[in-house]
Design brief:
By secondary structure, the protein is α+β, with helices and mostly antiparallel strands. The chain is about 25% helix and about 30% strand.
Length: about 280
């Protein structure tokens, strides 16, 4: 394997100032966004930063794909024109994420994006832009180098940018407030940023059978099936990190590892602006 060489900026890891983190992500009912410290790290440090105690794998330049292959589910009845249009819309989201300092110059992590789409029962087209973040392990014999970066096959963490995919029915949509300028909700152990682009409410109040109490539930009419299937109505940005949520809560996830990098990129992206630019794509 060739010797690792790259431009690296070494900076000590310092915790985010509490006042800064709180003002950037204000949540109701005393809720705290556990990932604020990794966002604040990348707001203060430039692309290419690695920690002083980083080993050779954490310093290795990562394979960085900036275009996504698109896969359309069989028998989806999606025209090439519609698939291409939605792919171009999701490319706006991909460009915004990859422009963030945590993903602009990779060390210790590789990023591979893909797009999958299918026709929903409503007639709308659901699409998913996935950015997989894979840690690099130079000692792994399966590791290879391509296009100036290293890649180690295996498990990774991911960001899913969902286009017109309805929230799961029958469960609290988990609205939490505004974090770094974007709406935030919680689904299980996943933090989810979202934009309702059609102006409809994400959730409604409904009466729970038997108890008669009022509970929040996903709006069954969130998406309008009568509009063109390629028009953005709802954008959901889900972070699926395995044990990452627990690591963030315990502040053991490092800002420069795969979890820290994708969290920072997701929360530093202006999703309202992304949705507006996606709407303008023709």
């Amino acid at each position: 394997m060739s010797r690792v060489s790259a431009s690296i900026i070494l900076l000590a890891l310092a915790p985010a100032p509490p006042a800064m983190a709180q003002s950037a992500c204000v949540l109701p009912n005393g809720n705290v966004f556990k990932g604020a410290y990794v966002v604040e790290f990348w707001k203060r440090h430039p692309a290419g930063t690695v920690l002083p105690d980083a080993d050779a794998s954490a310093r290795a330049p990562g394979l960085r794909r900036t275009t996504a292959r698109t896969f359309v589910a069989p028998r989806s009845n999606i025209s090439k024109a519609d698939a291409d249009l939605i792919s171009r819309k999701l490319a706006v989201a991909l460009d915004a994420l990859m422009a963030q300092p945590s993903l602009r110059e990779l060390h210790g992590v590789s990023i591979i994006p893909t797009i999958n789409m299918r026709r929903a029962s409503s007639g709308l087209i659901e699409a998913n832009l996935t950015l997989m973040a894979y840690p690099i392990h130079l000692e792994d014999p399966a590791t290879f180098q391509r296009d100036g970066g290293y890649f180690t096959p295996g498990e990774g963490t991911n960001i899913n940018v969902l286009f017109n995919t309805e929230p799961a029915r029958g469960r609290d949509p988990g609205e939490r407030g505004v974090c770094y300028g974007s709406r935030l909700r919680r689904v299980g152990d996943a933090d989810v940023l979202y934009v309702v682009a059609n102006g409809r409410p994400l959730a409604v109040d409904e009466v729970v059978p038997v108890s008669g109490r009022i509970a929040r539930a996903p709006n069954p009419d969130l998406l309008d099936p009568k509009v063109p299937a390629t028009r953005l109505q709802f954008l959901d940005v889900q972070l699926r990190t395995g044990n990452g949520a627990s690591e963030l809560a315990r502040r053991v996830a490092r800002p420069t590892d795969n979890v820290g990098r994708i969290y920072a990129a997701a929360f530093m992206t202006d999703w309202n602006g992304v949705a507006a630019r996606m709407q303008a794509v023709r």
